[in-house]
Every structure is written in structure tokens, then in C-alpha cells.
């Protein structure tokens, strides 16, 4: 017979695990409904676009998209710096704009996104976001997006995204 174990070392039963998980999810608000604004078909894109301003698109010699991001309290983490998820979402949006400038209105999807978080952009700071094409092929477009503080030009974040162009059906 095994010796009795202290309470904290005892493995919880499946029922206890389910109950703990349910309480955890309820504390996060899983039971609450989303606001009506989130139910719009393009709510996510509208949220990301609202963060960006002063967008310019140049096409020569290679497509380049530049814009400004103001770090507001809506997109900061508990350290009052730009949230990593917001960085990734903006990188995807700017990268997609770059890819569309290069490939036109073809159907494409994001295949890979990698981001290096090098420094923090603090609350109320302005960040210059610039995206450009690294490679454009028949079925793939690779972009890079850099985030620099506007006043010091310090590089905060850099992202690389791979977009795959959907093949045209030949029926």
C-alpha cells in the first residue's frame, strides 16, 4: 500500500480538473456575449486600421507601405507598452497591404509571420511602421515590416511575413 501523500501532491480527479477548468474559463468571461461592434463582418480589420494613420504607398522601385501608429491605452499591456498581439496584427495588415501592392488583387493568405520584439514602445509614443517586399514570386510574396520610434528612430520590432497566392482554378 502506498504511503499517504500531502494534499498538494495528490493528483486531482478528472471531475475536479473539469470543475477547475470551468471556473477558470468563467472567470475569464467565457459566458459573456461579445459587443455588437465585434459581430460586424470586418470588425477586426477596422480595429487595426483605427490604430494606423498617415499611410503612404509607393510602388517604385519596389512596393513600400509607410504609416504611423500612436500607442494608445487600448493596445498596451500591463507594462504600458505596445501589446505583442497588436504588433503582430499591425505587421500582418501592413505586410498584406505591401503584398497586395505587389501582386494586385489576387486571393492570398498569410502562411507565416515571425516577429522579433527588440525594444518596447511606451504609451503615447508614435511609431513609424514601414513595410516592404523582400521577394515576389508567382505563388509567394515575402514582406518585412519594421517598427521604429518616431522621435529617436530606434528599431522596436521587426516582422517577416510570407503570403501565399491562391492558384487560379483551371476548369
From TrEMBL:
<dbReference type="InterPro" id="IPR006683">
    <property type="entry name" value="Thioestr_dom"/>
</dbReference>
<feature type="domain" description="Thioesterase">
    <location>
        <begin position="79"/>
        <end position="156"/>
    </location>
</feature>
<dbReference type="InterPro" id="IPR039298">
    <property type="entry name" value="ACOT13"/>
</dbReference>
<dbReference type="InterPro" id="IPR029069">
    <property type="entry name" value="HotDog_dom_sf"/>
</dbReference>
<comment type="similarity">
    <text>Belongs to the thioesterase PaaI family.</text>
</comment>
<dbReference type="Pfam" id="PF03061">
    <property type="entry name" value="4HBT"/>
</dbReference>
<protein>
    <recommendedName>
        <fullName>Thioesterase domain-containing protein</fullName>
    </recommendedName>
</protein>
<dbReference type="GO" id="GO:0047617">
    <property type="term" value="F:fatty acyl-CoA hydrolase activity"/>
</dbReference>
